[in-house]
Amino acid sequence: MSDFLIVGGGVIGMMTALQLADAGQRVTLIERGRCGREASWAGGGIVSPLYPWRYSAPVSALSRWSEGAYPTLSLRLEEETGISPEYRQRGLLYLNVDDPERALPWARERGVPLERVGRDVVAAKEPEANPEGDQALWMPTLGSVRNPRLGQALRARLEAMAQVTLVEQCSVTGFIIHAGRVEGVTTEQGRLSAGSVIVCGGAWAAELLAKVGVGLPVRPVKGQMIAYQTPPGLVSRVVLKDGRYVIPRADGLLLVGSTLEEADFDKSTDAEARASLMASAADIVPALAHYSVAHHWAGLRPGSPDGVPFIGAVPGWENLYVNAGHYRNGLVLAPASTHLLVDLLLGRTPLIDPSPYRLEGRSSLARSLA
């Protein structure tokens, strides 16, 4: 029997498993598909909230810690697996920002390098970008990762660890409960027992916890993205304008995103979203109007009411925990949110105050099982 059983093999679930295994725990990670193939694969990989000064203190606390963790994590995974997550710290250009008077004081208060720049600086940094005015901001420290490669590297590392068991292509159908204790899960392939169970199911977390009468306000929010294959160097940095962004990869792939759609669990793509994303791409980098879309896909974010994730024990049930509801910032917040939960699980001093992320008062409990 494992010490911990994690339900959900996205970046949150895999980083949780990695940290628990690093601490000497035996871990089983169960995923209904293949690890790292849902929202963790579908996002853009920017290691910061898009407009960080617009977020609440709980999100900012997790974000700041996570941003500092990614360089070391990426180097570690490449060394251990041979798979590079392609962490790039080339900065971010914010074009057409309508609230610099809010952004600049936020940056000064936190010691974050952020400055207002003119068209000349934008042209020097990204000659192909279209600033349309002088309301640009430059953040030189922002980084990004190639999230599909990050998922591959995490999975490869876990697969090589003797104390980790990966169970893929296996859906959880219920929980094993005895005297108010959650002792494991039932699956299509049988029962799996563990000392504690952690739900890291992303957009599916609410469905999972509903099986024990817990109403978690997490819902799927669809995001569609497109990508162009361009010559390497056409764009070198992340460029953000009017809520849409262009993210470059080292091989010239340029990601453009993304839509925000309330469409339940529908992951289909459509021509209207494609046209909207293409228009945004050409507005940010006019040269992209001369390229064809190479890829178009959709993923499901785990939306929560205030964008603050739920991290910690599930009230009313012993040995049941959750880490879900990161909305647009799952990859951004993953290192800190998983570290925080592992601190709580192992009785360590938490790296940040856990109280804003607790479920008490933020979820509906309707315990009906015994």
Task: Tell me what you see in this structure.
This is Glycine oxidase ThiO. One of its GO terms (molecular function) is glycine oxidase activity. It is an enzyme of class 1 (oxidoreductase). The chain is globular. It is built from nine helices and 18 strands. By secondary structure, the protein is of the alpha/beta class. The C terminus is likely disordered.
Global Rg: 21 Å
Distance between the termini: 22 Å
Strand count, sense and barrel status of the largest sheet are: 8 strands, mixed
The beta-strand count equals 18
User: What helical percentage do the residues reach?
Assistant: 25-40%
> With helices defined by DSSP (H or I, 4 residues minimum), what is the helix count?
9
Shape: globular
Kindly name the structural category. Answer: alpha/beta
Show unreliable segments: 366-370
SSE pattern, N- to C-terminal: EHEHHEHEHEHEEEEHEEEEEHEEEHE
Provide mean pLDDT, rounded. Answer: 95
Strand-residue proportion: 25-35%
